[in-house]
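It is worth pausing here to work through a concrete case rather than discussing structure prediction in the abstract. The textbook approach is simple: state the sequence, then state the predicted structure, then interpret. We follow exactly that order.
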Amino acid sequence: MGFYRNPFSSFLQFLLTILILTPHSQSAPDYTSLVYKGCAKQPLSDPTNAYPQALSSLFATLISQSSKSRFYKATTQTPSITGLFQCRGDLSNLDCYNCVSKLPTLINKYCGKVMSARVQLLGCYMMYEGAGFAQISGMEMIFKSCSRANANGAGFEEKRDTALNSLQNGMSSGFFATSFGDVYVLGQCEGDVGASDCVQCVKSGVQRAQVECGSSIAGQIYLHKCFIGYSYYPNGVPKRSSPGSGPNTGKTVAIILGGAAGVGFLVIFLLFARNLLKKKDIIKSNLNLQIKDHS
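Step two, the predicted structure:
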């Protein structure tokens, strides 16, 4: 005699199998990862102890603006401190706010009370300068990062250089990202930099990337007023469902599970129908036996 199998149990086992076999959604890039920090050696001259309150007010203003803008610059009155933040052009307002919100704490942690400080995260940066602090050129390199891995394939540097050169032609809005072949490039200028100065800054960054990073498969060059970066993908640049995001694996998983649920309910229906047919056959068989017994 066969055992009756509950169709709901079959459905649950089916869904469990789908969940195990379905790849997990990849986490989004962590835009709050630290890239670099720069702290002036000159301490704050603060005989009236007014700087902490002024800085706190400046930070609060910058954070509040980050929910609606990717760049904002402000200056306190007394004492005079100028500060700004900027988010990557492909970040949403929420991502920008979450990124910028972490910066004041990091500035205090890494730099303390100094005349000027700058902290760069993967998705945003914040800086401030006290009045009278020495200015530097907008094209001065302040940080570089080159991958230790090198590209072995022929034609890499040509592809990279073509992609980087196209970057210079697309900087009219201050932010541009594109790909050429297997190379993805991205560039951005500080929000108050003019179009022509932006192009010159990016051009300088491109030249430095070619010299500093050589055949590295990835590199980032941060100048005072702009930054550029490139990444080489031997198997092709991953498709992005939106700027700055990875492949939309979360949506894919939802579609798979939705389809699995639909198939599961169909399985339940078929099992239930088959069970009814079996019961009808049993009843019919019993009736036939009863008729034979009475005959």
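Step three, interpretation. The radius of gyration is 30 Å. The longest strand covers residues 81-87.
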